[in-house]
Amino acid sequence: MGRIGILLRIYLVVAVATLGVLAALSAFAPHQAPRDAWVHAVIVAAFAIVLPLRLRSARRGSVRGLRAVGLIAAVLLMVNVVEAMLPDFVPVWMRVEMIGIAVLMALVIALVVRERL
Predict the structure, then answer these.
(1) How many Cα atoms sit within 13 Å of 77 on the Cβ side?
(2) Which residue, 7, 16, 33, 66, could crosslink 26 as a Cys pair with Cβ 3.0–4.6 Å?
(3) pTM of the model
């Protein structure tokens, strides 16, 4: 589960960095930090806190904790891909961030499945 933890730490860094970029853009280029981008980023950051908590439970042997990590990762994967494809939803830079998060979540899912086997 060490690799899952590394991926979740990367995810946390991306989520916090996104909030920082949005804050800076709000001051200097507000059109690059629309309300929808903020809503998405805050939700993504909230899951960046929840996932490590569930992983901690899984490390203690909880099958439910590991299952929760996989399910949350699957939802994040789907939501990020769908939202990245919506026209005019968020700026291009954030679409790239969403696809990056989707890739991270796909890797987390693969590792969860591998762990379960």
Answers:
(1) 14
(2) 33
(3) 0.92
